[in-house]
Every structure is written in structure tokens, then in C-alpha cells.
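WARN  no MSA supplied for this record, continuing single-sequence
INFO  ligand: iron/sulfur cluster
INFO  echoing inputs
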Amino acid sequence: MKISISYPPLESPKGTPLLSQNRQFQWFSDPTYIYPMIPASAATLLKQNGYEVFWDDAIAEGLSYEEWKERLVREKPDIVAIETKTPVVKRHWQIINELKNHSLQVTNWKLKIILMGDHVAALPEESMKNSKADYVLTGGDYDFLLLNIANKLSDKGELEGGIYYREKNQIINSGEYNLEKHSLDELPPIDRKLTRWELYAFKNGNYKYLPGSYVMNARDCWWGRCSFCSWAALFPGGKFRARSAGKALDEIGELIKLGVREIMEDSGTLPVGKWLEDFCQGMIERGYNKKVKISCNMRLNAIKNIEIYRLMKKAGFRMILFGLESANQKTLDKIGKGLKVEEIEPTLRDCKKAGLEPHITVMVGYPWETKKDLENTLTLAKKLFRQGYVDSLQATLMIPYPGTPLYRYCQENNLLLTD
Ligand code: SF4
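INFO  complex generated
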């Protein structure tokens, strides 16, 4: 059985879409390519279990839609798995329908299409009704779930929870997804050759040193409560899982052998406490800290002791990405950030003092914020730059994504222009 993990080109005047572990969807005019970590893990796991895998990221390859389609038809996979997000889901429905219709005209091509991603996890029936997708995944463990479907289609077991499928013209749900039964330590290290790591090694704003690459040691964020976060529905914070620090270090060693000089650790929030200390000690003891730089996502009040930042610096960490989101306490409370405004400056100061490069993300456009509130955030951001506490900033428009508490808030307050 051949399985294609596909990112069809989504040609648009808006730019290049960022899918995958991009928790706020963006179009980039200057393309940046994020290595899709869970789909890459899926490709590796499927191959390890004897399936033929075709890694098909036509967005990162820069193919046109027609080039991509012709190639896929030549490959004739039995399964195509596509990851989607809210702003592009309708385009994916069109592509799925086109592919399914095309496959019917090709002799002996019984194509099955699987749709996955945060949007369909929130609204699985919508995609089953509006497209000819055969399966929709509702949990974020695409690797375990894709293997489960491939096994089911090969008469090796039953479907586990978290999967929508069709039977006799009915849409059936296999039940609740269960993240706890999937141990991340059971997953093989990502096969970088199979998943064409070089596609994601150069064009990426997170890298200072090239080539760069990605790892993701946890799913996904131990906080998991921000009301706008489109991944909190895939991976609720209470079900947080991390690989052992030892396995994480082994993977860093493999990336160093490939020649990688910078690594983006893209878990929603990096594990802290003993995990982080073990990981840092391991980086130092194995000498990896001299060979590679690491960046990661962190919560602003997660590390309260500057010595931990110093240890991270010694271990090779470089950029630390913090979600600041707003300088207004009422907004931080409303979005479930679990952060006090007065915690922001001391954390960034300590992080910078330890020699790290803090990067902050802020959001604008909260429906309850006034112009004055917006100016507060702008003023704080400017002050942080003036003080030299941050190196870079990323601003995003607040967008309520289906499945998030923020979306429900907007629905209840009649704020949505869409349905
Ligand atoms: S801190 Fe909030 S926004 Fe960031 S990954 Fe966790 S839940 Fe999502």
C-alpha cells in the first residue's frame, strides 16, 4: 500500500500558506517553510510498518497545481493524507473532490483521502459533508491515526477513536480520540531523508544559522488553555505528553550528523522543570551545545529563576519565543493566558541577561479592546525594545478559529461575519 502525505499547492495572490504546527494561520509573501513534524513522524511510522510512503510537500517544492496533480496521478497512491486549516479548507474540499473524481476514471485506482488538521478536528462533519474525503481525523496524533487507518484498510485491526468515515452512505464516528494511549517514546526518530529535510532547511525566518531543522518533543503545550489557540483543541493541556529527554538528545545528535546548525524546537511550549534541566545537562555533556543552536516556544511566567535561563544558554539555546499577546490584564485574563502584566518585564530582562534572544508575539484586534488598550500594548512593546529586553517581535491579527473558546465567544456575541 502506498501512502502520500500531501500538501497541494494553494496558489493565491496572498502568498505562501503556512500550515502544520503554525498555531495561527499566515500567508507569507516571502515564503518560509515550516517542517511539518507530526506528518513527518507519520511518514516515518508508516514506513517502519512496511508501507510505501511518498512525501509530497508541493508547497515547499514550489510546484504549480497542475505539476503537482500530474505527479500525484503518476504516483497513484492508495491513500492521500492532506493537512488543512480554516482559511484554506474550502480549497482543500475542491482539490479532494477533483482528485476523487479523477481517480474514478483511472483503472484500478481506489483512492482514499484523509483530511486532518485543527479545523477539521473542530468541525469533522462539515468536511465529510462538503467533500468526498473518506476519513477525517479529529485528534492531533496524525501519525498513530494514519497508521491505524492503513492497518484497517489492510485488514489488520479495527479503527480507534477519533476518526470519521463513511459506511453505506452514512457518516460514522469511531468515538472519542484517546491521546493517552499513544506514547511519544514509541515513535521512531523522524526519517529526515524520507521527509526531505532539506526543503525546510533554508527558507525559514526562525533560523539564524543554516541549515536549520525542526524537532517537536512534546504534544503540545502543558498550558493548553489560551482561548485563541487552534492547537489546544487537538492537544488539550491536561493530556500533555513529552518524549524522554534522552530520546530528544539522540535526535539532536542525528541532526548534528546531518550538518544542521540550528534547530527550532516547535512544541507549543517546551517542557520545563526536570525535563528541561536533564535536556540542558545532556546537551552540555554530549558536547552538542558547541555544535548547534536551539530555539523554542516558552511561556512568559514558566521560568522564574534566571539560573535556568543561564543553563539554557550554556546548553546552546538561542531564541526563546514568548506569547505576550497583550499588555492589558483584562485581555490576558479573557484569553486564558494565565499571565500577569507585571510578570512580563522581569522575565524578558532575565532571559536577555542570561544571553538569550527573546522574541515576543503580540496580537491586535481583540473585539473588546479599545484604542487605548491597543496603544498600551504598542507602548509596552516599544519600551521592551528600548530597554533591550527583546530582540524581535511578531504581530498577528486575532482570528477566532473554530473549536476555540474565542470562536464560541464571538459566536455568542454575534461578532462573526462568517457562519
Ligand atoms: S501557551 Fe497558549 S497559545 Fe501557546 S501553545 Fe500553549 S495554549 Fe497555545
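Residues 205-412 form a domain with the TIM Barrel fold (CATH 3.20.20.70).
INFO  checksum written, moving to next record
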